[in-house]
Amino acid sequence: MHLRRLREDRGLTLEDLASRSGLSFRGIVYIEHGRRNPSLITLLNLARGLQAEPSSLLIVFDKSD
User: Fold this and answer.
1) 31: alpha, beta or left, given left = phi > 0 and alpha = psi -120 to 50?
2) What span, in angstroms and rounded, lies between the C-alpha atoms of 49 and 19?
3) pLDDT digit of tens for each residue in the chain (65 aa)?
4) Cα→Cα distances 36→10, 53, 64, Å
5) For residues 20 and 12, is the Cβ–Cβ distance under 8 A?
6) Which of the residues 3, 6, 15, 57 has an alpha carbon 20 to 30 A from that of 63?
């Protein structure tokens, strides 16, 4: 998942995204670092916090990025 890229592209800090999505700061860190896999509800909350379509969180980027 490229959550960090989407968050940074929107100029959001981890704290901002946590507040906007209703998730914990630590939970977002774990997801960004690949230590946890988000549930469907968490994906929907993250999308809401990012003001993005949920499908944008599932897009796979080229390995060269």
Assistant:
1) alpha
2) 8
3) 589 999 999 999 999 999 999 999 999 999 999 999 999 999 999 999 999 999 988 876 555 54
4) 22, 21, 24
5) yes
6) 15
